[in-house]
## 1
Amino acid sequence: MTMTKKGASRRSVLRGSAALAGTALVTPHFFVKNAWAQGECATVGNFPVEGPTVTFGFNVPMTGAYADEGADQLRALQLAQKHINEGGGILATLQPLALTGQGVLGKQVVHVTGDTQTNPDAARQSARRMIERDGVIMFCGGSSSATAVTRQYLAQEMGIVYMHGLTHANETTGVDRRRYGFRQFFNTHMTGLALGPILANEYGGDRAAFHLTADYNWGHSMSGSIKDATEAQGWNTVGNIATPLGATDYSQFLVSVLNSDADVLILNHYGNDMVNSVTQAVQFGMRDLQKNGRDVQIVVPLYSRLMARGAGDNVEGVFGTTNWNWTKDNPGALAFVSAFEEEYGFPPSQAAHTAYVQCILYANACEMAGTFYAPEVIRTLEGMTYSGDGYDSESLYRAEDHQSFHDILVVRGKAPSARTSEFDLLQIVDTVPRSVVEYPIDTFPGELGEYCPA
Amino acid sequence: MNDLFLTVLAGLQIGAIYAMLALGLTLIFGTLGVVNFAHGALYVIAIYAAVQVAINVDFTVALIVVPLFLFVVGVVFERGVIRFFYDRPHTDQILVTFGLAIVVEEVAKWLFGANNIPFPRPDWGDGVIIFYGPGAVIPPVPVFQEAPQLWLPFIDGFVTFDYWRIILIGVTIVAVSVLFYLLQFTRFGLIVRAGMRDSDMVQFLGINIARRFAMVVGLGAAIAGVAGLFGGPILGVTPDQGMKLLVPSFLVVVIGGMGSLAGAVLAAVIIGLSLAFTADNPDIQAVIIYLIAVVVLLFRPRGLLGRKGVFE
């Protein structure tokens, strides 16, 4: 059989097709925009993004116990949207940076909001509504580990990246870690690693501690981490009472502390629980008491400026940790704080900072990946090192558990006389470097799951 | 013994707040037959009013202004809302008052935020009280030397307790006593009690019972005002305080017997002590007041001191 000169034979067409297919297979996928969309997963969330805009979901507590944190997160997220679309803020300091201040991948960012109500069921419903009705490509924000974990599972199920807000329990990037969830905020284990040595240095190595612990997953995570960290320094844990979440009166628990040999009271509380417990501990004269020949001390492992404000003068001298503070003076922090203050007239909280950074990091990862296709964006974030996000040194998004590692701050409440403004409540005692709080991946069990939603 | 003493004190103080709120609830129910789920909202208004006056003016002024303000709020509440629901089913009353409570909570959140507003105590109520026994040596630090001290023979060494909470217990005893006196030994009380039995007959006698009923709601609100004044510095000033206190206070009313003032006080003491004595066992503490409610209602369906014919 001879080939005709006028056209391609069936065999040559087949050969050509095979060669083309072979070439496509060996070509690295990162050269091809949206390449994974055609091969890896059948469908992924709301990809592809149609039209001139892309929608982000800002899923924060607008009601409930953490409504003030939610409000601050919302302010920060709207600011992040503005900076992504128009430039400004940490776009001047973040490295590596692919964003140009003209949206993401040529699309302007718009947003929808949802109220988590600080309630896992409500948070999940709110996030689902954003995904199904509003077509968000990513959602971000929140306060409370219970709401974070439930939305993280939803994100995995629906193929939508979830950039966590404020969640501090180990489980979020431990046993409950998910491929579609990323946490910039630190965790209780890191708090223990940072705070333990400083407490021992400040108060001595043979203290007796009594814990009051909020009776839910974060509280128990916090209590366990601080117990491990302080006992490693030689402290003894003499008691631990689980207090109901949202308790208003702590007198019955504080009586047990007074009747024990404890000379340190550790309050594993957050939000109004922390405000109430630390205030009432001071009202019971804990700070003035002596036991075992030493002054009784109060420790609040996880601090928040918003809550320190609620507790007023009662936080004076009380140690704790925080993810970030507006008084940091590195270029990233200065850029964010000045932009936030210019927009809203007061400095941002740590809740605002984590939400802001998370939103910018996601947008930047999309721009770097050249696609909104979630598996590619996730791969871009995994193992990424970056700087200029408000910390003194480089940060890392660990690939294996999606936990961000960066400096964290050990702080103590300022005396009223030392404050320069109503927002200047926390004195930074130490900036604990990333190397100290970075722990081995096998510290907590857990599996991220697949890149394709399931 | 020290442990027991402090636990009893803690229980009485927990019960004190519940007692004051339950008194208002049961007073309004007993006289008007209205289940007022907005009573927690009155407490919320009280704590915000109290903290604003205490910060911007003085706590002593708040002592006078806040109960009076709450009395007015109560009267307006009765004239503007409650009176339209006297003859409606209890479910309607619950729905409208619960709705009002949510509105008040959200308005407070909108005006003041969800975070706590620190409530400064006046100097005369700040610090701790020291209870000491034979041979006790009080540490030579000013905060203890200047604190109120009380000798008790059964105390081993010395113990400290939040002084404001002792004041709260005292204020509750005074409030309860004044209310009992008002209802049992005054003409106003006589008319109100008569109105509770048969309001139509009282009106036939030419007495404006509607005005007395409005004053009863005002009185209940004023007690919530006192509760807010002395409870705010302990429990905090947040919009959700009313809802948090409402359920246990309502249970106190049910356990004590709907409409029974003495029952409310007795039940509040029982609830307070049971919460204090189960503090080391969170699982038991979480259900103890409901267990008490079940047991009491099984054996005394009208509550501890409930009367025949009320809420039946």
## 2
Amino acid sequence: MIKSPDKETDQGIDAFSFLARFAPLIFLLLLMAVFAILEPRFLSSVNLFNVMRQVSITGLLAIGMTFVILTAGIDLSVGSLLAFAGLVAAAVAKGGMQDRFTVGDGAIGYGWPLAALAAIAVGLLGGALQGIAITKLKVPAFVVTLGGMSVFRGAALLFAAGGPISGFQPSFAWWGQGRIGPVPVPVIIFLFAALIAHIVLRYTRYGRRVYAVGGNPEAARLAGVNVTAVIWSVYIIMGFFAGLGAFVLAARLNSAEAVAGTGYELTVIASVVIGGTSLFGGSGSIFGTVIGAVLIGVLLNGLVLMNVSSYVQQIIIGVIIVLAVAFDTFAKSRRRKA
Amino acid sequence: MTTDNQTMPLLRMSGISKSFPGVRALECVNFEVGEAEIHAFLGENGAGKSTLLKILSGAQSQDSGRIFFDGSDTNFASPRAAQMAGIVTIYQEFTLAPDMTIAENVFIGREPGSRLFVSRRALEQQTQALMERIGLDRSPNALVRDLSVAEQQMVEIARAISMKSRLIVMDEPTSALSRTEVQKLFAIIRALKRDGISTIFVTHRLEEVFEICDRYTVLRDGRHVGAGSVSETSIDGIIRMMVGRELGLLVKRQSTYATPDIALAVEELSRRRKNTDASAIELHGVWFNVKKGEILGIAGLVGAGRTETARAIFGADKIDSGRIIVDGTEVQITSPRDAIDYGIGLVPEDRKQQALFLSLAIRTNLSIASHDLISSLGVFINADKEDQLVDEYKSLLNIRMSSPDQIIGNLSGGNQQKVVLARWLALRPKVLIVDEPTRGIDVGAKVEVHNLLFEMAASGIAIIVISSELPEILALSDRIVTMREGRITGEIAGADADQEKLMTLMTLTKDRAA
């Protein structure tokens, strides 16, 4: 008496959820086909690698953001934290800030490893502090990271005193500009990080808890999950990726400046949401986020090639975010009805 | 007294029926309330009281049946329509805006003044007059947030009077009040009666019925089973009416697996109400024990503190004082994690809100508490071991599912509940607390779940069962403790218990003699 209706809805759901799951990929392929027809330059390998390299920075941030959004959280501070971490890394690499202060012996600076560590340390610390405010002070993540957005941007401006820090050693710049074979290094970093994150979310106990906390925090708590620790951890992970992204961006531009990463929060959140991760938490994947990030990169690149103004690009990205969330809500309501 | 009103009563609901998917909530119920009458509306949990009151207040509509109010045939399309007609309902959870003043709350949506502007003077004066009438000694400009529960209730009553209501429905108005506050409330209700306003009074405290009410109506299983004058009945008589149903499918168990070893003991468990949460239920020195292999039932009406006791033991809510003893050793439990580590499991009362991850796979739901058993290197989930775990409990509990990756939200309630039970069984707990084991699942699955609980007891697990359905408690328990208002009020062997004895213990004030 229970079995037959169960079966029916099962199949209905499966067909729909299959479509919902691969909708971003299908949309990406369609988009690429359209651009390929309209603009032959689009499909050249130079252009495609160029797209991927541009995607890799926001893609790295989007990996961290996936963890955050899976717990139904949000982090608006990523762009600002990235700018601040990038400046700290640059200062470490250059041995100081012009004539204001010096780092290390004789102001010749340190190699890229220490610069990278510095960027990541700043990111981790920024994420950890925000995580404490969210879990211990019980301030909503939206508010904490909105504040963080301002705090880190201010810190970056203060630190840089208005000017960029440019010109790193070639071994530093290689991390942003180099290639292994034909593939740009940032793309390799991005895809490798995505693979690790995918394994963590998919195959580890920790990953299970992230989904559980996002799916139903009260049920997770009653099943013995330390919900506070999980929520704290995702903001630390986000901070890690902001630091890593800062290092790679500084290397790619051979420069760090206080206004770097302005508006990244929009692109990053859009990548995650377009990739099918629910803003309500509990469902989504790194695979989807990678597709979402590439999709936005392709869209922007195609629009640039077709000489669409950057103002119009902003409008298009905004509309797409709203449509992606509308789709998510629609998919949810279908699931509930079944 | 029964025939003091030969004409049409103030309210007559006749032949009211209402069905929800799968449940017949009300079946041809008649209900009458006279002019200036205080009417007790009684019944067990799930008897249909709330449904009938929702229909009366316009929040729901009946499938069939007619409502006559003040002589005319009416049907309230909305709560607003019922209020306009003169029926105001005061729910257990107040509908006040805490950050607005008393005056603003009383006249919310009906502020005196011109079309655009509110006249603050008129607002305050009219509120002041109402407050004096019911004896609320506060400034009309006091914020509702700063009032006690009893005072907030008085604001609700003031609002009801200001709407020129003829009939005020109070859903368990005394459950959150102290003795003196109850007396004050009764004085107000009597004063309203003198002004010709009738009250429908829902309560689980039967002695209150005899203190204040004129007449009563009892519902049971969605049917009208009795009505009359309070002076012509007794507490025993009313209890008989409330519980007099047949046991039906549920048969009292024969065998017992109880051993003499105490698995869990609770002593002097107390929890006080916090100012911030007026609706929280207090616990007062709760104590009991449960032995290995025993099924202990906790019976009590809604708000008696059964669920709160379970949550306190499990570390889901903080307690103020008390001792929890597992296997003879006192333990400190400050979180569910602690409780699980001591071998205690909890199947919560609200499956969807508190137990399940509805959008996630069956495997995730089943194994969430037992990652230790299925991990490799302490970090990764071993998919093979997890599949085995799911398979084992799928056949053991007869869970009907297509694959471990099926989304649990698509299973029936009974199968979902089995997955939750499997989650805890996999941990081999010493004590399993099951709150409402069969809520919202069909009869067939109910029997299966009951048999599962017996099997668990046979394997030596101490089981605590909380249920609002007395037949279920009676069918399952070796021993039963009853609760009322956060206190243990009695203990009775399962074999000696029947519904009337339990209902008596659940509704009387007398504490259990130590």
